[in-house]
């Protein structure tokens, strides 16, 4: 399509330059009439009809149903709530990172509770909006293992630019094993991480965040059960390092304008470090 | 309108108006059929996509009707175009030139509208359900 | 027409001199403060053009701020929230304050003289529109200096923009400020349609109209169908923001998608509303520089009319990713491909004309070719994004940003600058600099491509639009830096051109008359220009009279055609018939006045007060605005002339006062009501849209709607009011003033009762508009119709007052004809309302 467009552009501009600069003298009117008829009418009509038929033929197959695995993704200001709904087995909740099996057509159910977002993984296919009150679906297939980046493409407020996610495509068997392992909560932390857990719960983080296997069961913010296993934090805003976790907790609004999470600027550094250690340990 | 012996701005836009009516009809038929046949259009159910055959037939009928109107407009425009002995480019300040200019422009619009109607009917050929 | 047939009375040079003095006095532009009371098209058109260009420069600075912020990843030049205001206002100002108004501005400026008319039929309406535009534009743009600009993107999608927690007063500024400007746009459209159809010079049959006038006609008609849906959307939107009516709230049955439909039913035709007038400029420029008539006049008419229609079938291509069924998307995909055909035809007609002509190269041509290069590129990417599967990738990314800038800059901005260089001698008597023009062109052309060409790649690599920052290392960094550098080069080009236009040229010689050797009437103007517009209204028998009619300029200069004089010191122009331009009236157009400005200030006050939810002030301003408009109409319209007929020259006597379908006022009412009906149709569309998405129909049992009784009563009373109005018109024609007045009183009482009954229906059945979208929709339609009945009451009272004041008589009856015409439309509105609200629920039960 791009090459065809380039050829058309060169031809049109070529005629324009020829008629104005190279040979500005009059040509026969008949030449002009032929140009209008063939260049302005016949050629575009035929080419556009062919393109349209091609595009229409493509449309139904791009919306073929998936092969069983369904992942519900809810876009929320400004992060992604992810729920795996395997055909067999219980649902698994996660956030801001999506794992998919390679070579399988996975069906995404896309919703939003607040404003319109859009779900797009450029390397895997087209985007679909997440519209409050509607549920859209999108079917994607990762051909190769790897990590792909996805992003919100519909303007959704102050931190629209900071609403991305990683898609990790792994082999089918590994995926099934991974999904099954999610059913059991991560093992309890030790050392500094254990103190971090205590602080996490004491400061009330559990009111908004859920960590399976603890009393933290909030559903307002992202599920943190396997937080440590993710490569990024803050919806793919920062690399997931202990320093960044501490920074994010201390100055949330500065890193992510108008995020719902309040900043905790008064937490002592060592407490932040402990919390970061705890969250990092959740794998 | 179709019987009018005098070309006017109304006869000029008859064919594109038929295109617009056909476009709107096709869209409304398909959109309503999908919205009303899905138990609740807004919630994913996992069920098969509703079939669109009746809507496609209706769109086919609408297409024939629109092409019929365009054909009538074409016939009328041919009449206007031949009504007089003016030569192109119809740029004299005479009744014949005015009449034949309008007839000719109407013919061109009939052609464009017919292509437009066919383009707009193509989706019903290629897409059979509400996916 | 031979010389001998033309007025030999004009042989006397003394007489001609006296005529010219009288014309000058009559059309003189006032000095000092009173300058701003001018309503003549040359002043208003110039202010309008200058103001919209100023808004362009303002929006351009916002664009540079965007590019500066995005030059490097993680930049903190602007905060996220301020950036969102900046990009929203950039788009809003470019579209609503520059692209559309400049069409109206340029048309007001050049159309009358292109048609050999002294002015448009409603100069005070143009003036009112201009002041509305200025006030609304300053209000919308000024908000950013108070950190209160709209920040939801220029298409303001709910629920982000309806939610008070998400968006502050900026959303109200956007909705009300722009609604105010849209009303002014529609007023200009009415003016331009009537101007094109009724103000052509004698002999200029429809097949001889300058192509520019064809485009104006098509575009103004498009405005009538495109802007009202947005106004309807604005009403729903503001009702949700102000009073919590849940039109876009899914929790109460609303749907954010309705806004997207209404917005884009406006938004896509708007692209062509912006594009076609600019192409119209090229349609004037190309023949001039090819030094021959356009090759394929009828084909341009085909393209203009065809594009006008097809462009209304594209709106959902902005909604390809909303998850609508494929087949729905496919119709719009098909129409989006089809619209490329007439667009292409225009370009090939220009190319063919250039081929067949002896091309004179010049700065306007340079811009025209540059426009072609950029626009064709944008059109080709447009063909790509019209295919839904491709659009699913490109939508809402920098690819689309690049595409839309290619179409708008190539399809609108470059042709506009070509037009500026071309028409500058016509407007300001001197030529612009060729050297600066070439510099400006190359800086802009190179800067533009350096800015926007890389964005195609940036977008396909995955950069979404409307992001205030981006992360390093995703492949966006270098491309964005290049774009930013290009943007500043582009801006330098704009500065060069702006300087060329604004720099003082007092010492330079005047341009020769008709400096480009063009063929159309506006080039009759002399340098320095005369304030009367045209010396005499010419008789036209060709498409390019200056090329094709012998002795045309001499006869014109000697005033040998119509209206060479202003004997009574009144501003006059000719009104002709629609198809064949036979003279039908000598129209006296109103002169300079501060009334339109005053009315605009008061109307603006009402809109601005509403933004701050200051209801008392809003009501006070509305009443004052109404009073101002009524005063203006009372004093300035349907004025009874001192004599019935006037000799307009060449032995032709024309009436000074005509009413009914012959009069321009009747046409203006008719055209306005077409626009009004399309807003109403959009509300009705909303009703059925909600019915469609609620698969099980609207909630509630039989008693849930407004019932049959009250709407039925409203219908009966409204029909009776309409009947009384028609009887009143007949009584007036029969010269029975007492019967007329009695019937008018009846009509007022019946209409008021009808409005009351219509509103009582939903009230009596306890419909709570906050509870669910169904009652809200019922209420909004009922209120819309009741307001129309109310307007009918005011108009009918106005007729009564005119009759009592001796300004409405059997012979002078413009008012009652126009008001009766309004009543026809009001009756249709009422009928559709009752059928929808009362009968439809019964039919689908």
UniProtKB/TrEMBL annotation, chain A:
User: What InterPro entries would the database entry show?
Assistant: CcO_II, CcO_II-like_C, Copper_CuA, Cupredoxin, CuRO_CcO_Caa3_II, Cyt_c-like_dom, Cyt_c-like_dom_sf, Cyt_c_oxidase_su2
Q: What is its main location?
A: membrane
> For this protein, what is any one GO molecular function term?
copper ion binding
The membrane-spanning stretches of this chain are 35-59
**UniProt catalytic activity:** 4 Fe(II)-[cytochrome c] + O2 + 8 H(+)(in) = 4 Fe(III)-[cytochrome c] + 2 H2O + 4 H(+)(out)
Asked if the Swiss-Prot or TrEMBL record annotates the protein with the keyword Metal-binding, the reply is yes
Give GO BP annotations, semicolon-separated.
Answer: ATP synthesis coupled electron transport
Question: Which keywords does UniProt give here?
Answer: Copper, Electron transport, Heme, Iron, Membrane, Metal-binding, Respiratory chain, Transmembrane, Transmembrane helix, Transport
Superkingdom of origin: Bacteria
Q: Does the keyword Metal-binding apply?
A: yes
List the subcellular locations: Membrane
Which Pfam families does this chain map to? Answer: COX2 (PF00116), Cytochrom_C (PF00034)
Residues forming the Cytochrome c domain are: 191-283
| Location of the Cytochrome oxidase subunit II copper A binding domain | 66-181
Topology versus the membrane, per the UniProt entry? Multi-pass membrane protein
Q: Which GO terms describe its cellular component?
A: membrane
Spell out the PANTHER family in the cross-references. CYTOCHROME C OXIDASE SUBUNIT 2 (PTHR22888:SF9), CYTOCHROME C OXIDASE, SUBUNIT II (PTHR22888)
| Job description of the protein | Subunits I and II form the functional core of the enzyme complex. Electrons originating in cytochrome c are transferred via heme a and Cu(A) to the binuclear center formed by heme a3 and Cu(B).
Which protein family is it in?
Answer: Belongs to the cytochrome c oxidase subunit 2 family.
Q: What is this protein called?
A: Cytochrome aa3 subunit 2
Kindly list the organism's lineage. Answer: Bacteria, Pseudomonadati, Pseudomonadota, Alphaproteobacteria, Hyphomicrobiales
UniProtKB/TrEMBL annotation, chain B:
Tell me if Signal is a UniProt keyword of this record.
yes
Tell me the leader sequence span: 1-20
Q: Which PROSITE patterns match?
A: PROKAR_LIPOPROTEIN (PS51257)
Spans through the membrane: 54-72, 101-127
Domain of life the protein comes from: Bacteria
Keyword tags: Membrane, Signal, Transmembrane, Transmembrane helix
Q: What protein am I looking at?
A: Uncharacterized protein
UniProtKB/TrEMBL annotation, chain C:
Q: Which SUPFAM superfamilies match?
A: Cytochrome c oxidase subunit I-like (SSF81442), Cytochrome c oxidase subunit III-like (SSF81452)
Using the UniProt record, name the top-level EC class of this enzyme in a single word: translocase
Q: Where are the stretches annotated Disordered?
A: 1-22
Cytochrome oxidase subunit I profile domain span: 21-553
Q: Which residue stretches does the UniProt record annotate as biased composition, category Polar residues?
A: 1-10
Give the membrane topology: Multi-pass membrane protein
Spell out the reaction equation it catalyses.
4 Fe(II)-[cytochrome c] + O2 + 8 H(+)(in) = 4 Fe(III)-[cytochrome c] + 2 H2O + 4 H(+)(out)
Q: Where in the cell is it found?
A: Cell membrane
Ranges annotated as biased composition (Basic and acidic residues)? 13-22
GO CC terms of this entry: plasma membrane
Gene3D superfamilies the record matches: Cytochrome c oxidase, subunit III, four-helix bundle, Cytochrome c oxidase-like, subunit I domain
**TM spans, by residue?**
44-66, 86-110, 130-149, 169-190, 211-232, 271-290, 297-317, 329-354, 366-388, 408-427, 439-458, 478-502, 594-613, 619-636, 664-688, 708-728, 740-761, 773-800, 821-844
**Family annotation (Pfam families):** COX1
- The highest taxon in the source lineage is Bacteria
- Involved pathway(s): Energy metabolism; oxidative phosphorylation
E.C. designation(s): 7.1.1.9
Predominant cellular place of this UniProt entry's protein? membrane
Q: Does the keyword Iron apply?
A: yes
Keyword field contains Acyltransferase: no
Q: Which UniProt keywords apply?
A: Cell membrane, Copper, Electron transport, Heme, Iron, Membrane, Metal-binding, Respiratory chain, Translocase, Transmembrane, Transmembrane helix, Transport
Identify its protein family: Belongs to the heme-copper respiratory oxidase family.
Entry protein name: cytochrome-c oxidase
Give the species this sequence originates from: Methylopila jiangsuensis
